[in-house]
Amino acid sequence: GIPFAGPQSTDQYRCFECCVKCLGVLPYASLFATILLYAGVALFCGCGHEALSGTVTILQNYFEVVRAPVETLDVLTMIDILKYVIYGVAAAFFVYGILLMVEGFFTTGAIRDLYGDFKITACGRCVSAWFIMLTYIFFLAWLGVTAFTSLPVFMYFNIWTICQNTTVVEGANLCLDLRQFGKGALVLDMTFHLFVCALAGAGAAVIAMVHYLMVLSANWAYVKDACRMQKYEDIKSKEEQELHDIHSTRSKERLNAYT
Fold it and tell me: Where, by residue number, does the polypeptide cross the bilayer (predicted)?
C-alpha cells in the first residue's frame, strides 16, 4: 500500500524545501572570493608580522643596529610602523569582506526577484557600482603591496643565487652572504620563508580582488537588466490599462447610443 505521509514527513519536506531555497539564494561567487580574501590577508598579515619581527632580530643581533631616539625615524621605527599598518589592514579587510558578502546576498536576491520593487534594484545598482570602484582601488593597492613584499624575497634569492655561483680568487670568497656576519642562518632562513608566505598571501588577495571585480561587474549588469525589465513591465502594464479603459469607454458609448 501507499505509505502514510504524517506530520513528521511534511515537516521534513518543508525543511528540505527551505534548505534548497537558502542554498539557491547563497552567492557562491562572493563566498569563494571572501574565503580567498580572508586566507590571503591572514597569511600576509601573520607571516608579514613575524617576518618583520625576524628582521628586527637580525638587525639588532647580527648587524648591531641600535634603536634611535624617539624623535628620529630609523629603520626599526619604520618596521614598527609597518607592523601597525598590518594590524589596520587585517581589521579593515575583515570588515570589507563582510560588506561584500552582504552586498552579494542583497544583489543576488534583487536579481532573482526581477519583478520586485524598482527602487530596491536601482539602489542595488548604485551600491554595486560603488563597490566596483572601491574594489578596483584596493586591487591597485594590493598590487603595490605585492611588489613591495617581493623586494626582500628578491634580495635574498639574488644573494643565494650569487653564493651558489661564487668563484674563489686567491683563496678569497667573493660571495656576499649575510649569514657571514653571525650565526643567524636559522633566523635568516625562517625570515626569508615568512616573507615568501607573506608574498603568497598578498598574491591571493590580488586574485580575490580580481574575482570580486568580476562578480561585482556581473551583478551590476544583472541588476541593470532587472531595472530595464521592470521599466518594460511598468510601461506594458500602463498601456494595457489604457487600452482597457478605451475599450470600456467605447462600450459604454455604444450602449448609451443603443438605448
Answer: 84-106, 127-148, 192-222
Grid cell of 50 as nine digits = 613575524
- Three-state DSSP at 172 gives strand
Residue written as grid cell 586566507: 39
Identify residue 39 by its one-letter amino acid code. A
* Gap between the Cα atoms of 207 and 223, Å rounded: 24
d(CA 142, CA 30): 19
Which secondary-structure segment (H or E) carries 153? helix 118-164
Over residues 125-145, the pLDDT tens digits come to 777 788 999 999 999 999 999
Q: b/e per residue, 230-244, with b = 16+ CB within 10 A?
A: beeeeeeeeeeeeee
Summarize pLDDT for 69-101 with one digit per residue, the tens: 777 788 888 999 999 999 999 999 999 999 998
Strand partners, 168: 173
Handedness of CA 115, 118, 124, 126 (dihedral sign): positive
- On whether the CB atoms of residues 30 and 215 are closer than 8 A, the answer is yes
CA distances from 123 to 99, 149, 237 (A): 15, 38, 23
> What pTM does this model have?
0.76
Q: What is the DSSP string of 81-106?
A: HHHHHHHHHHHHHHHHHHHHHHHHHH
CA distance 213 to 30: 10
